[in-house]
């Protein structure tokens, strides 16, 4: 992914404020927009990124079968419902009944495929986890041509907190 300053059309940008939370930086840009500022000349840049992967448990054959069964059941139910909707199998069989049969068959097939896929990993990554990206701060960058105007607008009464105003440049 390209940085905000890497596009050919981008001009030199200055940091006009820094915020500890993304929502605060978002509110600042919204305030600028509400007051007629050309927000297309601004960017919110996350700094000090860290990826935290929270381990949620073991991943074994049972959990692989469960995940496969859940996905297979949903897929099978949708296929069964479509068959029933267009009466491709038998006009007397309800679409809901076909969806139920599809869910059961899909769960069985999905569980088998899930266990086979888990066996193919050879014991690598036998845990489940949830990744979470965090930033230390969020800088509000504005093209140098408009930086003073943005700083003044954010300093005005009624503006959202300006975070830590910085005079540095990017």
Would you identify the regions where 5 or more consecutive residues have pLDDT less than 50?
A: 165-170
Order of helices and strands: EHEEHHEEH
Distance between the termini: 18 Å
**Side-by-side strand order of the widest sheet:** 1-5-2
Summarize the amount of helix as a percent range.
40-55%
Number of strands: 5
With helices defined by DSSP (H or I, 4 residues minimum), what is the helix count? 4
Count of individual domains: 2
| Computed CA radius of gyration, to the nearest angstrom | 27 Å
Range of strand content: 15-25%
Shape: elongated
Mean pLDDT over the full residue set: 85
Q: Structural class of the secondary elements?
A: alpha+beta
Instruction: Describe the main β-sheet briefly.
Output: 3 strands, antiparallel
Protein name: General stress protein 17M-like domain-containing protein
Organism: Haloactinomyces albus
Keywords: Membrane, Transmembrane, Transmembrane helix
InterPro entries: GSP17M-like_dom
Structure explained in plain terms:
- By secondary structure, the protein is α+β, with helices and mostly antiparallel strands.
- It has two domains: 58 residues, no CATH class; 77 residues, no CATH class.
- The chain is built from four helices and five strands, in the order βαββααββα.
- The strands form two sheets. The chain has a three-stranded antiparallel sheet with strand order 1-5-2. A two-stranded antiparallel sheet has the order 3-4.
- Helix 2 runs antiparallel to helix 3.
- The protein is elongated.
- The C terminus is likely disordered.
- This is General stress protein 17M-like domain-containing protein.
- It comes from Haloactinomyces albus.
- Keywords: Membrane, Transmembrane, Transmembrane helix.
- InterPro entries: GSP17M-like_dom.
């Amino acid at each position: 992914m390209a940085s905000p300053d890497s596009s050919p059309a981008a001009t030199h940008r200055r940091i006009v404020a820094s915020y500890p939370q993304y929502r605060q930086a978002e509110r600042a840009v919204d305030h600028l927009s509400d007051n007629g500022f050309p927000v297309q000349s601004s960017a919110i840049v996350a700094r000090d990124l860290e990826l935290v992967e929270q381990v949620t448990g073991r991943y074994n054959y049972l959990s692989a079968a469960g995940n496969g069964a859940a996905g297979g059941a949903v897929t099978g139910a949708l296929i069964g419902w479509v068959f029933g909707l267009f009466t491709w199998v038998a006009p007397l069989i309800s679409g809901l009944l076909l969806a139920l049969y599809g869910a059961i068959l899909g769960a069985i097939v999905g569980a088998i495929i899930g266990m086979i896929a888990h066996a193919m990993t050879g014991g690598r990554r036998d845990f489940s986890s949830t990744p979470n990206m965090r930033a230390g701060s969020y800088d509000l960058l504005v093209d140098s041509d408009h930086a003073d105007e943005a700083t003044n607008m954010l300093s005005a009464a009624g503006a959202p907190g300006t975070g830590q105003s910085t005079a540095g440049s990017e």
